[in-house]
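seq:
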Amino acid sequence: MITLGLILLIIGLIAKMSILWTIGLVLIVVGLILNLVPIGGTRRRVF
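struct:
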């Protein structure tokens, strides 16, 4: 998810499309939150 967000950020910057840049930024934030917060009671964290 973080990788997809980075790809969309780069495409948005190159193509000058602000909607792709915004979607990429949201995907990066959501990916980081899902990566850092344990879901389902598991204590395993993936960095």
